Amino acid sequence: MRARKNLNYFILLFSMLFIISGCSEEKEETQLTKEPYSKTEFLMGTVVNIKIYDEGKKDVIAIVFDRIKELSNKITVNEGQSEVEKINEQAGIQPQEVSEDVYTLVEAAYEYSSESDGSFDLTVGPLTNLWRIGFDDAKKPTQSEIENSLSLIDYTKVELDDEKRTVFLKEENMRLDLGAIAKGYITDEVVKVLKSNGVSTAIIDLGGNIFVLGNSPRAKDAEWNVGIQNPFETRGEILGSIPISNKTIVTSGIYERFIEVDGVKYHHLLDPKTGDPFDNELAGVSIVTDKSIDGDGLSTVVFSKGLQEGLDFINQSEDVEAVFVTKDKSIYLSKGLKEQFRLNDDEFTIRN
After folding, report:
1. Distance between CA atoms of residues 330 and 341, nearest Å
2. How far is residue 292's CA from residue 311's CA, in Å, rounded to a whole number?
3. Interatomic CA distance for residues 49 and 316, integer angstroms
4. Which is nearest to 20 in space by CA: 233, 228, 243?
5. How far apart are the first and last CA of the chain?
6. What residues have CB less than 8 Å from 246, skipping those under 6 apart?
7. How far apart are alpha carbons 164 and 289 in whole angstroms?
């Protein structure tokens, strides 16, 4: 996990993420607060912010953050003795029994690995651990180092035992890295906690994984207008917005985390087949769907496909929409967003 950096700066940027629109008709008598109960912490290498609008539900904030920290401690591989780290330590030795949370997450990661034919691979750990993008010791590895790490990446060598709830990496030095979908899983778990505690209206932000629960409290039956991240700027800068309710937006971009070597930028979205960052025309993708874990998985899959194939893939998928941003600052919308997306930045151009 990266060292904490300028938390106040990130909190300020967070406030720019949402554009909440109202209409002339105000909401009738409700049990919602005028100002939400809100809390922000720096967790999992990112800024986490929860806002609850239901009157009398302030105490649920603490319950939510307890759940986030519980899951983070089970999943994070770069600090402490998480369950995922213990799986990695037992690679090539023996199966490791895990909690239901971790087993469910590993199962989902395996499914995405299989469905994407390895363009998403839960065993990408040796590669991400080699590049270390996002950490102070990040570097551009040698080709020999990359090839050695690629030999350890193979999701088919992950053995799952449903009855014993164990995970086994069949070869020594294999490593799971669930970072590509961990925030999505945690976001979905937060939604469950909120609903089980009677919360109907809330915003969840796990650093790029946004979920809006219920309708906007600023107007009767209004959807939230949620900003789409500008992939060329620091998080919190938006290029447009879309109206949604009870859905998640997950954004990945090549300028979010990167290292620069000899004037060349290398982003953190690594191709488990080549060992290098995905190299195509895409600068950023925002996935709109019902579950945040699906948004995480799909954003990686789409990056691996590139613009046209990725756009075709989304248009053929049910209950999924996407905003594609290319390196030349063009915007391409999936068919369900063409009438909904509102452009806010004239540096970008909608092309379809």
Report:
1. 14
2. 19
3. 33
4. 243
5. 38
6. 212, 213, 214, 290
7. 32
User: Which sign, positive or negative, has the C-alpha torsion 234, 187, 18, 252?
Assistant: positive
- State whether the Cα torsion 137-143-147-150 is positive or negative: positive
State how far the Cα of 232 lies from the Cα of 341, in Å rounded to an integer: 19
* Rounded to 5°, angle at Cα 173 from 126 and 257: 15
Assign residue 306 a region (left: φ > 0; alpha: ψ between -120 and 50; beta: otherwise). left
Find all residues with CB under 8 Å of 8, minimum gap 6, and list them.
none
CA separation for the pair 43, 259 (Å, rounded)? 22
CA dihedral (170, 158, 104, 176) in degrees, to 10, reads 80
Helical H segments across the chain, by residue range: 7-14, 60-75, 83-89, 100-115, 125-131, 143-150, 179-196, 292-305, 307-315
DSSP for 82-97, please give it.
-HHHHHHHTTTT--EE
pLDDT in single tens digits along all 352 residues of the chain: 434 444 443 333 333 344 334 433 444 444 898 899 999 999 988 899 999 999 999 999 999 999 999 999 999 876 668 999 999 999 999 999 999 999 999 999 999 999 988 889 999 999 999 998 877 888 999 999 999 999 999 999 999 999 999 999 999 999 999 988 999 999 999 999 999 999 999 999 998 899 999 999 887 788 999 999 898 887 678 999 999 999 999 988 887 777 888 888 888 889 999 999 988 999 999 999 999 999 999 998 998 899 999 999 999 999 999 999 999 999 999 999 999 999 999 999 999 9
Q: Residue 271 has which token pair?
A: 């191709």
d(CA 269, CA 180): 9
b/e sequence 93-130, b meaning 16+ C-beta within 10 Å: eebbebeebbbebbebbbebbeebebbbbbbbbbbbeb
From its phi and psi, is residue 115 left (phi > 0), alpha (psi between -120 and 50) or beta? alpha
